[in-house]
Specification:
With about 350 residues, the protein is of the alpha/beta class. It has two domains: about 240 residues, Aspartate Aminotransferase, domain 2 (3-Layer(aba) Sandwich); about 80 residues, Aspartate Aminotransferase, domain 1 (Alpha-Beta Complex). It contains twelve helices and ten strands. The strands form two sheets. The chain has a seven-stranded mixed beta sheet with strand order 1-7-6-5-4-2-3, with helices on both faces. Helix 1 runs antiparallel to helix 7 and helix 3 runs parallel beside helix 4. The longest helix is centred in the first third of the chain and has 20 residues. It is globular and about 65 Å long. Bound molecules: pyridoxal-5'-phosphate. The site of pyridoxal-5'-phosphate (PLP) has 12 residues, from helix 3. Pyridoxal-5'-phosphate binds next to helix 3.
Length: about 350
């Protein structure tokens, strides 16, 4: 599909990934928690995938908890931390431009008595480290700031945020659904305590993701899904062998360079009159959030190209309202309606954006 430009919403399963997954859908179906030979084969393959994912972010295999995707990982990080403080409660710092699964989890935690600070970004979609420092309270139990914004592609300075959190002994979680495999991540270098990732953003399958939890054996996160002790007791349920193996394969086969679609895109887009939002700050080259100069310019673009693109994120498309991210960076409703997100096939971006 060379008119598909919505990779930030989802990507197809790469053919190499599909090939690796297929035998596990039909032949390798044994429950990996059982004790016979077939089960052992499955659990070994799962362990290999766990090691691949851990290696990618400089973690240990025992620190990777498989989930159904980044939404669940984010829920696990936030609720799992908050539920440790159900009696005393506490304060959480996040931003107003997180993915809805973070925002709505925080709103839910507020109904339980937790306090949440939603920090506003600047006009380029960046959260100032200074605003985090100023928001910290004595009872702050968690700082959660995403790495790459899914709507405008801005890259948060998570190294500085991690340092601030580390110096004050506050756990730091980052939603890396849009950066995992795309930017270099080393959880020690960046002082990350928890990190969420997702399979379908990196040419892996839907329905699988992971939460990295620093030293997860001792962290004391409260599980959200109680079950048979899988995933160190943090996430019950029979492990989905093909999905997990697909996630590991997606990491291995992740593209290391741009495709022809990127080059064609840049040639085409420059024929139109627009402003690229977040452009004066660090943005990933695969997400272009653009505001066309006029309604006529939007029409000209739409008539010329039957591209599959999105206005805001996939989640906001359903409500037909300007997204919370565009509003937060200061776009009024009319401007937001002339604004589109074009997202190109992801690849490993080396260098200064990491
Ligand atoms: C930044 C961010 N966080 C979380 C998610 C949710 O990921 P998943 O679909 O794996 O639950 C997405 C997907 O749109 C995302 O872009």
């Amino acid at each position: 599909m060379n008119n598909y430009f919505d990779y930030a919403a989802s990507s197809p399963v790469a053919s190499e990934v599909l090939d690796v997954m297929q035998p596990w859908l039909h032949y390798g179906f044994a429950n990996p928690s059982a004790s016979h030979l077939e089960a052992l084969k499955a659990s070994k393959a799962i362990q290999l995938a766990r090691e691949t994912i851990a290696d990618k972010i400089g973690a240990m295999a025992s620190e990777i908890i498989f989930t159904s995707g980044a939404s669940e990982s984010n829920n696990m990080a936030l609720k799992g931390t908050a539920f440790k403080f159900l009696e005393k409660k506490g304060h959480i710092i996040t931003s107003s431009i997180e993915h809805k699964c973070i925002i709505n989890t925080c709103l839910f935690l507020q109904t339980l008595g937790f306090e949440v600070t939603f920090l506003a970004p600047d006009n380029n979609g960046l959260i100032k480290t200074e605003s985090i420092v100023n928001a910290i309270r004595e009872n702050t139990i968690l700082i959660s700031i995403h790495h790459v914004n899914n709507e405008i592609g801005s890259v948060q300075n998570i190294k500085e945020i991690g340092r601030v959190a580390f110096e004050r002994n506050i756990p730091f979680h980052t939603d890396a659904a849009q950066s995992f495999c795309k930017l270099d991540i080393d959880v020690d270098d960046l002082n990350i305590d928890m990190l969420s990732l997702s399979g379908h953003k990196i040419f892996g399958p839907k329905g699988v993701g992971a939460l990295y939890v620093r030293n997860s054996r001792n962290v004391g996160l409260v599980p959200l899904i109680h079950g048979g002790g899988q995933e160190l007791g943090l996430r019950g349920g029979t492990s989905p062998t093909p999905l997990i193996i697909g996630l590991g394969a997606a990491v291995e086969y992740f593209p290391q360079s741009k495709s022809i679609q990127h080059i064609e895109f840049e040639e085409v887009i420059n024929r139109y009159d627009f402003i690229r939002n977040g452009n004066t700050s660090a943005v990933v080259p695969t997400i272009w959030n653009i505001t066309f100069s006029s309604d006529e310019e939007v029409l000209r673009f739409v008539n010329d190209h039957a591209w599959l693109i999105s206005q805001g994120s996939a989640c906001n498309a359903m409500s037909n309202t300007p997204s919370h991210v565009l509003t937060a960076i200061g776009l009024d409703e009319a401007t937001a309606r002339r604004t589109y997100r074009i997202s190109l096939p992801p690849y490993h971006i080396t260098g200064e954006l990491s």
